[in-house]
Amino acid sequence: MGRDLSFLLPELVLAATAMLMIVAEMARAARLVLAIGLAGLAAATLLTLPVLHAGTTVFSGTYRIDVISGWAKLILLPGTAAALLMARAEIAGRAREGSLYALVVLVTLGALMLSGAGDVMVVVLGVVLTGLGSFALVAFLRDDAGTEAAMKYLVFGAVTGAVMIYGLSFWFGGSGSTLLSDLGRLRGQPLVLVTGLAGLIVGLGYKAAFVPFHFWAPDAYQGAPVSIAAYLSVITKTAAFFALAQALRDLPREAGWPFALAVISAATMTWGYLAALVQTNLVRLLAYSSVAQSGYLLMGVVALGASPAAVPGIVVFAAAYVAMNLGAFAVVMVVGRELRDLDGLGRTHPVLAVALVVFLLSLTGIPPLFGFVGKLYLFTAAINAGFLWLAVIGILNSVLSLAVYLRLVVPMGREPAGASAAMSAPFLLCGVIAAALMATLGLGILAALLPG
Amino acid sequence: MSIELAIALSVGAGLFGVGLYGALSQTNLVMILMGVELILAAALVNLVAFWRYLHPDVMAGQMFVLIVMTVMAVEMAVGFGIAIVRFRSRGSVEMEEARELKG
Amino acid sequence: MSVSIGQSLFLIFFGAAAVWFGVVVFRTHSMVRSAIALLFSQTAVGAMFLVMQAEFLGVLQIMMMASEMSVMAIFMVMFMMDPGGLGAMDMTHQKRLSLWAGGIGLTFALAVIWLTGWGPAAQAAPAAAEQTAALGRELLGRSMFVFESAGLTILTAMVAATMVAIAPTEEHGR
Amino acid sequence: MPLLTITTFLPVLAGLVLMVLRDRSARVAHGMSIAATGATFLLTLAIWARGIAPGGFAQVEQITWIPAIGAAYRLGVDGLSLPLVLMTALLFLLCAIYSARIKEHAATYVVLMLMLETASLGTFLALDGLLFYVFFEVSLVGMYFMIAGWGHEERQRAALMFFLYTLLGSLPLLLAIIGFYLGTGTFDMRAWIGAPPLSGLAAMLALIAMLFTFAVKTPVFPLHTWLPAAHVQAPTAGSVILAGVMLKFGTYGLIRFAYQMTPEAFAQAGQLVLAFGVVSAIYGAFAALAQSDLKKMIAYTSVNHMGYVVIGVAVAALAVDPRIKVIALDGATLQMVSHGLVTAALFFLVGMLQDRAHSREMADFGGLLDRVPWLGWAFILSAFASLGLPGLAHFPAEFQIFLATLDTRPWGVVALVGIVVTAGLYLRAIATVFLGEAQDRWAKMPDLDLRERLAVGPLLALTVLVGVAPGWLIGMIHATMTGLVR
Amino acid sequence: MIWLALTLLAPLGAGLAALAVRRAPQAFALVGAALGLVGALGLFASAAAGTEISVSLPFLPSFPVLLMADRLTATLALLVAAVAAAVLTYAIGYMARDPGRARFFGTLLMFVTAMELLVLSGDWITLLAAWEMIGFASYLLIGFWHQRPGVAGAATRAFLYTRSADLGLYLAVFVLIGTAGTSRIAPTLATTGTPALIAGLLLLVAAMGKSAQVPLQDWLMRAMAGPTPVSALLHSATLVASGAILLIRAAPMLPAGALVMVGIVGGITTVVAGMMALAERDLKRLLAASTASQYGLMLVAVGAGAPVVALLHLIAHAAIKSSLFLGAGIFQHDRDGTGLEALAGAGRARPGIFAGFAVAALALAGLPPMAAYFSKDAILAAALASPAAPWLLPMALGGSVLSGAYMGRALQVLWSGTRSETRAPVPFMAAGMAVLVGLTVTLGAGFGPLEAMLGVGADAKPWIVPAMGLGVGLGGLLLGWSIAPARLLGPLLAPARNGFVVLGGMDGLVARPALALAAQCERFEQGLFAAVLAIGRAGLAAGSVVRRTDRETIDGMIFGLVEYTIDLGGRVRRLQSGFIHRDLALTAAGIALLIGVLLAAPFYP
After folding, report:
1. Which of these, E94, E96, E87, lies nearest to E434 by C-alpha position?
2. Label partner for E177 (CA 20 to 30 A): which of A257, A270, A443, E80?
3. Residues of chain C whose C-beta is under 8 A from some C-beta in A?
4. Which tens digits make up the pLDDT trace of D221-230?
5. Helices H / strands E in chain D, number of each
6. How far is CA C6 from CA B52, B95, C10, D401, in A?
């Protein structure tokens, strides 16, 4: 038990942080809440380093301390810190500000549970925990859009979650265990396997916003505060991928899931970019773009067990995705939610414009940016696993994505609209943008340092 | 396969079907949540039946049941929370009225 | 054998009740009635647990559902001004599609159930006391992490629910 | 010292510096531009001084990037890339000098040009499949903005056409690169060249993919339709870079990738490639003959001249005798450089004419030779160079190509018709624009000023130099090609 | 080595200097021409002494540039240098008042350089290069007064005609290099069999273009648009001569079949061009046609297997024709025109010049003791001895008669009109002409030694040959002097005046079809756009979900694709109805599909 707890230090610290934040929130000391949260996130990040390469499990296999969960912490915790800073810049001074911070940290805890899940129950709890927190976060503004978004998100989450649980219940029947590592016992029971798998894909797919489980995403992002949209688009989404990777690693590939996920992957990226192509609301556009990015991440999942590049691919691209998507959302927070708000940005705020271009190019996958490195791994993994056609579709979609993102770049070169010239970027956001920029550029160039 | 297991699982299937119908057909948020409760109840029935008739010595099954019950409860709680805030804002929790966000 | 037959009969009875009340949930035109039907349905599920010798879970189910459904009924009366049975409004849409979806879901689940060889059935369940003790050991041993996670989930739900549901008047006070 | 890396990235670094400068006036921007491109040019001379290795790549610079998948940063030169690199650096320097008059958004323009230079140099120097592709694509984006931002009347449309055409065109190349990667597990082009990884159907498919990409870029009939539109709308410097540098990506790739990496498949498909080259050459010449717009005419002659390069490469693939292969490849490579020099000069001159008269229609002019003798004689010299007059740059190249063609596939020599047709069209252009009775409306037209002479002069001098004594240039090409056909 | 450099570089350097300095170009021209002449003399001397001077310079990796002065090429080099020196001297006077002097002399000197390069080239690539550069230089020289109407067209035409024919040289060179594996001329002359025949015929085509043989004779008349010294130089020893020189040099290689073709082409030309000359109403154009005719005679000699004889006639003709042109130029100077009517009696005004002109004219007609007498007789003898004598001899005789006739006519016109006042004396022009006329008279004496030097014995000719030569020459002169061309030619007059253009000549046969083809290409180009568009449209229609676009512009598939994609995006977007139950229904359908795929997937590995 002591050993197990020592491995769980980052999670424990974070849980304690969350409690402290709730306590501080009772005193209505929002800044204190934020400070505690940031400190806790930093501490948890640091505590992750010693157990990064532990490669073990705790509590009889129900939770895994392995390469995925380790890197997940290194990705999710700083990402959450950035999201907190963005949230502070957006909602400082509103009622229940501290609750939001606490909730964010709690949701991140759920995300960590997902990414280290070794047991079906942990998956279920992770999905539900992140879900519940997210519904509330989306509803934070309490205006019509916010409540509508939360309501849709809730309905979608509840239904898919229930379907997932129903499907997963069959796995228990088939294997006599709730451990993911015992899923191999399901060989010979294809129907049970498929039912549970379908449940898992539905539940995690909704979380990660694959097609056709993504419908909530644009609405929820649009209704939520922008910082929360950014948070949801990166943290809970990547966590779902980690959970999917944890579960599928133990499933035989003959079960057919690689092909099914490949189909979903292709559909997701295509659908996402097609829909993004016609958006005029920047948040919605980024929402669809993040749907499409899920398709790419899925390429790594498809190759699990068939390519050594699969896990590094998921991890690297997830890291890249967190950095560049947070960066892009942060710029949107400064600029405004509509496409026309970008008019003339290149003239009025050249640095901001360049940052946005870098993020968008990275999202497209232009080297030597971080996003390219991640995509490279993913493409390699997919091709190694024999899914050349998927890689081709991925490449074609990269072209489409260029069209999507160029729609943002082009107006920046226009004459400024006038009103936008006055806006200024809050200090916190500048910090977030700078950090994201450094990650996007630096980690792309120094890709040799990443796990291979 | 024992007949009891079949009966219990079939009941679960029935609850699932009804719940799915409800979740898809209802216009009211609360009613949709009721459909969700029924689906979760189906999962409960499944889990208990699997535990009883296939793996009585695996207590993880019962544990799972507890977890699902927790899920039912917390989902209801947050669901009501959101229903309240929506009701305050719009005076209704009809899903058909929630069409501001689309495209 | 007689136990088995008795169990089967009870399972069929309570199962039928659970499903029937489940159907009723969506056939009344009042949300309060729906809530009560759901309560009955869940109670029947609890009764099935009892039949299947999972006493602890059965009792838990019945108690939890009873409280939950009463909360729901109160909630509906308080907030939605629905005293029950007054309005006869139709609260459904895409009915046919939903029927198809439910039907297909049912068919598929039945197919999975009936087409899978589940292996030999266990004849006896552990005694109730033994069960509870084992569950306790599970809770505090192997499933400790899961259990604590569930705790955190409940905490999150509380924070989330209070955060959104708190009266907006306070906002102006600040 | 990593000279290649410094050379490649110096322009873009200068561009970044310019972006953060407080004073971004046109003066500063153009000063920066000339300084950066000038320094880059000097650096390429230093690379030249360091020399190449006969049997492979020299001055290789390599940094591990993503070891797990064999991607690395690799640069190097050989006798195929070095001439193109020198030419690229020179053309960008001259463009910088020529563009010094541009006043609107000068800083952005300069940054774009510098970015394009880095991309172009990188394309020729990259020894890593991915890196090559990246530079190849980035150049595309740069040119898109160049046309869209500083082009003529229908620029948006032309830019989009250009962009989509070549973007869609370059995707097959990516597939081929992936194919090579799967065959070797590395993106090292040297490995791909050293032991061609694909064979049989796979090699043929990869070849078809690459041929498609490079045919669009070169461009080869019937995939050339983007070229006239892009040229006509592009600003002068854009046209110069497009024709002088970027078209070479196609033929460079044809040799570096198609010829070197799928040699057997290329030999099988050689006849067809040759046919396309021949048709391109003849069609380009006749289409140019039909034009009345000077710029469009020159654009079409590019189709003709690049067709000769394609012929040369195809003949090299088809030939059995290694001597003939070398002659064909020497000719093809030299033709790339020659075309870069000559066409760049022609586009400059037409641009200068357009600056003065705001027209490119031949019929609008007449008798300009006495009015603007520098412009006129420069044009006449360039035109005769373009039509393949001995003593000027195109002759040694085209001669070798045709010689090898006749020796390998005699029917290919029908492309010789092209040299008569180009002669006809250039003579007609000279006669209409520069000869004949001087018109009063152009009486005030000024002759070339110092800046313009500086932009065109070096090109003309090199045109003559290459034509009279190509030894210094063809020596390095020959050394590499001799090693390459082994 | 030094002589070679002097021969080539002196004119080139002088020309560049003249262009660069732009002052006193005459001085540069004189110095350059003189030094070039000295160099050529040196070459000739050493070649005559038996030392071949050759030098090899790097050019293409496998094909260095080879310059070689053997007896034949040194002789030609000397000829070129001499004529050039004389013509340049003349041009100093002729161009004295022209503002573009520097350009003129610069170009002329470069032209001389190119010609020297041609005759001295020891490899085919250099020869080809020089050949084309001569074309370029002539283009510039013919177009020198480009402001005058028609001049630009004439220059363009000259270059295009010769360049089209040059394709023959290109191909011949490719064949020869490909067969012999080297670009040096000497080894390739050993080529035999089919390659030799093909190469020979291709060389003939090239020579026809440059030497204005039928049917490529048209450009030569129009090329008179240039200044007179240019015409003199072009016609005597340079541009037009290069075709004959090419065949003379390649003669050892030519198989019998090719020789016959050469002879027949030459024979036809000599007659046809002779008639054109006779019908001509302009002195310079008359001389131009006569040039074509005389080169035809040389081709007859080559075709008869006597290239040295052709060379002799070339030398003789060079001196004669340049004299004639220079004389014509002086008359033109006096009368501001070269039409025969305008020139009537011009000879009387300048009897000295007329005398020189007449001497040259008689020489051309083949009267002894002038140079052409010997060479023409030799040609007749060769034609007689040739296996193709039945073809060649009549044509050679016809050409000779016509030579006499048109020269007679020219003399008659120049002498018979009214005398008008003379203008200022023309010392430089007269000097240049005097040298050449002197050569005309004296060269014949040198033919014997020259033949000996080139290794051909002056074998005894049958008595009939000098008789025939003298007869046709005198007869021709008398006919020309006494009978008007209209009566002489009869029905042939009109076609002769039109230059015997068949089917619209090169214009109709080549230029117009080429332009039509170009127009077709342009139409095709438009069609290509439309086709790309159509392909795009067809693909879209097959998709059957595409909204019809109204815009009928030539967008092409590209824009179609963009629109289609955006349209698709719109459709996807519309699926996002905002109704959560619809979304859920789609999700449910998705789940069903997912399960279907999962169940089916094992069958699709």
Report:
1. E87
2. E80
3. 108-109, 111-112, 115-118, 141-146, 149-150, 152-153, 155-157, 159-164, 166, 168, 170-171, 174
4. 878 877 887 8
5. 21, 2
6. 15, 45, 6, 97
E404 pLDDT more than 70: yes
* CB contact (8 A) between residue B95 and residue E576: no
Number of cross-chain residue pairs from B and C with Cβ atoms under 8 Å apart: 245
The letter for the amino acid at E455 is: G
Among A12, A245, A216, A221, residue whose Cα is nearest residue A114: A245
Neighbours of C70 (CB within 10 A): 13
Query: Partners of A119 in the beta sheet?
Result: A179
Query: Which of B20, B24, B102 has the CB atom closest to E581's CB atom?
Result: B24
User: What are the CA-CA distances from residue E530 to residues E516, E553, E554 (Å)?
Assistant: 21, 9, 6
C-alpha D231/C-alpha D238 separation (Å) is 8
Rounded distance, CA D304 to CA A309, Å?
46
The C-alpha atoms of residue D96 and residue D86 are separated, in whole angstroms, by 15
- What pLDDT does C121 receive? 81
Shortest distance between the Cα of D449 and any Cα of chain A, in A, equals 33
Cα dihedral D458, D460, D463, D469 sign: negative
Mean pLDDT, rounded, of chain D: 85
**What is the model's pLDDT at position A135?**
92
Give the range among B73-77, D147-151, E357-361 with minimum mean pLDDT: D147-151
Residues A112-126: what's their mean pLDDT? 93
**Which residue has better confidence, E422 or A282?**
A282
Does the beta-carbon distance from A259 to E601 stay under 8 Å? yes
- The minimum CA-CA distance between C56 and chain A, rounded to whole Å, is 19
Token pair for residue E529? 């756009």
Tokens 């010449």: give the residue: D285
End-to-end CA distance of chain B: 49
Chain A: give the shortest CA distance to residue E546, in Å.
15
Beta strand pairing call for A63-65 and A56-58: antiparallel
Fold category of B3-101 in CATH: Helix Hairpins (1.10.287)
Contact D149 A413 (CB under 8 A): yes
Whether residue E593 lies within 8 A of chain C, CB to CB, comes out as: no
Q: Which of A388, A392, A452 sits opposite D68 (nearest CB)?
A: A452
Q: How confident is the model at residue E540 (pLDDT cuts 50, 70, 90)?
A: very low
Find all residues with CB under 8 Å of A121, minimum gap 6, and list them.
A62, A178, B60, B63, B64, B67, C143, C146, C149
Closest C-alpha to B64, from C150, C137, C18: C150
Helix, strand counts (H, E) of chain A: 19, 2
Is A376 in Cβ contact with D68 (below 8 Å)?
A: no
User: CB C94 to CB E585 under 8 A?
Assistant: yes
How many helices (H) and strands (E) would you count in chain E? 27, 2
* Alpha-carbon span B52 to E93, nearest angstrom: 126
Other C-beta atoms closer than 10 Å to the C-beta of D185 total 13
Q: Give E90's contacts (C-beta < 8 A, 6+ positions apart).
A: E229, E232, E326, E329, E428, E429, E431, E432, E433
Q: ipTM more than 0.95? A: no
Cα angle value E378/E379/E383 (rounded, 5°): 120
Q: Please say if the pLDDT value at position A319 is more than 60.
A: yes
Q: Which of E600, D69, D174 is closest to A303 using CA atoms?
A: D69
Q: Check B85 against C165: CB less than 8 A apart.
A: yes
Can you say whether the dihedral through the CA atoms of A323, A325, A326, A331 is positive or negative?
positive
Amino acid at C3: V
Q: Which helix (H) or strand (E) holds E57?
A: strand E53-57
Q: Subunits that touch chain B (at least 3 Cβ pairs < 8 angstroms)?
A: A, C, E
